[in-house]
Amino acid sequence: MNDHAAHAHDDAHDVPFLEDGKGWKSWLFTLDHKRIGVMYLWSVLIAFAAGGVFALLLRLELMAPGKQYIEADTYNRFFTLHGAIMVFLFIIPAIPSAMGNFVLPLMLGAKDVAFPRLNLLSFWIYGVGSIMALSSIVFGGVETGWTFYTPYSTNTSGAVVMMTLSVFVLGFSSILTGLNFIVTIHKMRAPGMSFFRMPLFVWATYATSILQVMATPVLGITLLLLVAERTLGIGIFDPALGGDPVLYQHFFWFYSHPAVYIMILPGMGVISEIITVFSRKTIFGYRAIAYSSLGIAIISFLVWGHHMFLSGQSAYAGMVFSFLTFLVAIPSAIKVFNWTATLYKGSISFDAPMMWTLSFMVLFTIGGLTGLFLGALGVDVHLHDTYFVVAHFHYVMMGGTVIAFYAGLHYWWPKMFGVMYREGPAKFSAIIVFIGFNATFFTQFVLGTRGMPRRYYNYLDQYQPLHQFSTFGSWIIGLGFIVMTVNLLASFKQKVKAPANPWGARTLEWSIPSPPITHNFHKTPVVTEGPYDFPVEGQAASGAEGKHA
Amino acid sequence: MNTGIVRRQHAHHFATADQEFSASKLGMWLFLVTEVLLFGGLFVGYAYGKSVYPEMWHEASKHLDWKLGALNTLFLITSSFTMVMAVNAAQRNKAGEMNGKMVGYLIATIALAGCFLVVKYFEYSHKFHDGMLPGIYYTYSGVQNANAHYFFGLYFLMTGLHGFHVVVGMILLGWVLVRATKGHFYSEYYTPVEVGGLYWHLVDLIWIYLFPLLYLVG
């Protein structure tokens, strides 16, 4: 460590990172993890808006049976775009790449991620992949759904090759980010920051990164095989040529089931942070939550077959996968119970991040429990490929990850941009989204149990009232997000300066000014206590500032 | 950095050069994990084909030239050896000097990789000529069993993806070579030689699996 002094601080970098350099070049060629995080943030927010518009258009078409305003083929392209954009352009990079990039090094007390150039490369690859994905609209669209199942994806016309290659490219971005984070967590922790003093968001990101590194390459090769199948007809997925389409499903879900945990785990990390800060209480079961992230990461590799109960998989394999699916519910439940126990006797404050978090707890629990219905072999025969699956998936992905993402956005917004938003509209938008979400998707549980198949353009008259109700709900969600967006953007105009630690949190990112300086810390912090050691009532607050102290 | 020789240089966000070295190594190991999983998909495709069509697999694999495969195995194993020697030379090098041994071993490694590709070129062009092409382009009539195109489809995908990695490795080691000639690597700093070597060993290792699976086991 004696050569530490040789790296004396460059005073030019002691300005807030947002002001360190002007113009688009200072952003596009930056190596600062915070700027890369902010670029990711705007990118994924735009992707969310685009995917959301497609969702609203789909719901509008489903207002009544038969054609409303688009043809069946267009409908198929729309739901593929909605799924592909939301999954690959938004949810997967949202929390790890946008928020992880920003706060992970800060939480560890590091100056940057381990490989800043690789980090920037990852963002560029994300940009290229996103443009490729969107360009598939121009090249004839894709109507396979985001799962690209063979044999339809190998026979249908349209821009399947472009879309799958874009997902291949986006996968690289995901792998590089995951790799970077694992190395950062292992090698860049500040002195005293042992593994069990790391904030739980870091643990969750760590588990996510392992999944990104270990699952994404399999998707990569699967998509390459799909491209080879379409262009060369190698036959690996085509029964007429000696292959097996179920093999594609195995390959695809070997990635994509861990991928849903790539999507939800970082969300759980965000929730762990917020719930303890706004309960003013040390998190209950720190180690249980930390280990359960790893538990989820491991078991999630072993459950992919539950997507194929009805695809001609052997009954024995079905039973094993069903059992393992029940098993993966345990670590998720451990988290929910520990969060609830954290709330117990906490001094809870209902600020905007907490409102989103409580919304998450309700919606994620419903989403998780309905997943067990689908994991049960007998029940799945009835519910397979119905709206029940759609509703379950949205409860977990939107009610879970998306809501957690916005909880995190409200939590770290002051840190990222150095400004406070208005509390009233922020809370209001959380409530509206919660109401609209349940109106939209709880209805779909009912539709599913009554037999409405997913991805259908047309339906029987008996389903119309529920479909209509669901569409009204989607408008309420839209309204909620508009209120939220306007409120957040207005904070740039109001310029209410954010204090360093507006929430009274104890993790390291709140120990430095908002927004942080380019090099994060004037002096590398030395960590002497856990991330959630809130002062016990009656004792003097040791260093905690902010309105709660 | 204007003094020419800087002991233990490292990027500013690392506290020490050791930290940077071990971070780079861990990063490369993780990348190698992703490579193994990338090829893993193809190995599963191989296992599927071999279990469903064992006779065809056996017949089709006879049409690969095991002698050329063995020659290529020799090339790659030797190149792994020269790579190790290059890393070793870097570890013993003094600061600021170009090390002839290191440069020589790096050139040998790249040249052996080139030999591998030349042999692969002859193998490929022979198969193209006979119509042993992947998928729908397969026209060869020498294998009587059905679905022989499946074997050759996988053969080209597996060796093609591996060949691509050989090319990437040559570019990577070429960059290491250029820096080595400028005397950038010495006992205290040789991270690119080390991680470039790690990558190269994996390329070699994958071939060590491909060769028996495709040419011998059949």
Notable characteristics:
heterodimer, A: 549 residues, mainly alpha, Cytochrome C Oxidase, Chain A, globular, disordered N terminus, disordered C terminus, B: 218 residues, Four Helix Bundle (Hemerythrin (Met), subunit A)
- This entry's quaternary arrangement is heterodimer
The gross shape of chain B turns out to be elongated
Class inferred from helices and paired strands of chain B: mainly alpha
Mean pLDDT of chain B: 91
Shape descriptor of chain A reads globular
Structural domain count of chain A: 1
Q: List segments of chain A where confidence is low: pLDDT < 50 over at least 5 consecutive residues.
A: 1-10, 540-549
Element-level helix/strand string of chain B: HHHHHH
In helices, the fraction of residues of chain B equals: over 70%
CATH topology of chain A: Cytochrome C Oxidase, Chain A
Commentary on this structure:
The complex is a heterodimer of chains A (549) and B (218). Chain A starts with 23 loop residues before the first helix and ends in a 55-residue tail after the last helix. With 549 residues, chain A is mostly helical. Chain A has one domain (19-511): Cytochrome C Oxidase, Chain A. Chain A is globular and about 65 Å long. Chain A is built from 15 helices and no strands. Chain B is mainly alpha-helical and 218 residues long. Chain B has one domain: Cytochrome c oxidase, subunit III, four-helix bundle (Four Helix Bundle (Hemerythrin (Met), subunit A)). Chain B is built from 6 helices and no strands. Chain B has helices at 17-52, 54-61, 66-92, 100-130, 148-181, 191-217. Chain B is elongated and about 65 Å long. Mean pLDDT of chain B is 91; it is low at 1-6. The chains are: A mainly alpha (549), B mainly alpha (218). Chains A and B meet through helix 6 and helix 7 of A and helix 1 and helix 5 of B.
